[in-house]
Amino acid sequence: MSPKSLSNFTTLHVGGPAQKLIRATTETELIAAIEEADSKSQPLLILGGGSNVLIGDDGFQGTVVLVETKGNSFEIDACSGGLLTVAAGEDWDQFVEFTIDKGLANLESLSGIPGTIGGAPIQNIGAYGHEVGEVIARLRTYDRTEKKIVTFTADQCDFTYRSSIFKKQPSRYVILDVTFHLRNGEMSLPVEYAELAKELGVAIGDRAPITAVRAAVLSLRGRKGMLLGQNIWSAGSFFTNPILSAIDAAKLPAEAPRWPQTNGDVKTSAAWLMEHAGVSRGDQLHGAQISPLHVLALTNSGSATALDLLELARSARAKVRDKFGIILEPEVRLIGVEL
């Protein structure tokens, strides 16, 4: 396999070659690589942990920059909590573990999510009722349009469910580092998800030790095959949970999951829709497979191409559309391919 094959740098182990591949280990190298590609009007792909991306079999005809920047600084105050600035290339879950070891709360439910610090704000990663946008104080970016470093406060990031200004304008901003504001505390935020409450043995709305919440989340994710290092090649959840109007949500079967939103809309479960539309764990199409552990994860069983995964995703999507009239949207970023 070519060292420039992008399958080497994605958790799906899928993707063709990069025309040019650069590993940026410092912020200076990262900005220089961006400026060089932009000065030559070359297509540019910024890649972090490769955990939320499906790259086409033809690869990427341009420059791919692997963000491998490291470093962090932090201040922890007995009253105000912790203010931590972390480089974009740092590993997300290692950072979560670090904060819990320091007695800082509010990231425990986001344990085990693969990827890097820089990738986390782009899709506003979330799990078990909480999102990273809740704890971001500010972040620094390189603005490719203005050709300068620009700092965003949290309220300027336009964080919504699995989205942000950085996802909406993917060709403009490259995240350099992120500053988090966490609280001191041994107890978690109130546990709002029934699945997590059951795992912890607490009632919905109760709090639990942050170490216990992390352990429970890792256990749940592990049983779903959603952790790296499990010999399961996937990009995590392939589709986002649909957010419906109250009128459309009322058309769902009574037993369908419903999570009311503050604006009156209702979020439902993509996994539930898939399972009740006839998508089954273990379904296989050539080298692509619906995970045997969780229907929402599409996996590479060892020989999958991007086309195999797309065909499997299209099949699952069509079943949900035909059964419920709902079109599932990909959570995975598609590069050089379309669903």
Keywords:
alpha+beta, FAD-bd_PCMH-like_sf, FAD, Uridine Diphospho-n-acetylenolpyruvylglucosamine Reductase, domain 2, 3 domains, Uridine Diphospho-n-acetylenolpyruvylglucosamine Reductase, domain 3, Uridine Diphospho-n-acetylenolpyruvylglucosamine Reductase, domain 1, oxidoreductase, 339 residues
pLDDT under 50 segments (min length 5)? none
Radius of gyration: 20 Å
Tally of DSSP β-strands: 20
Shape: globular
**Strand/helix succession:** EHEEEEEHEEEEEHEHHEEHEEHEEEHE
CATH topology heading of the largest domain: Uridine Diphospho-n-acetylenolpyruvylglucosamine Reductase, domain 3
CATH architectural type of the largest domain: 2-Layer Sandwich
Pfam family, one: FAD_binding_4
Organism: freshwater metagenome
EC number: 1.3.1.98
Main location: cytoplasm
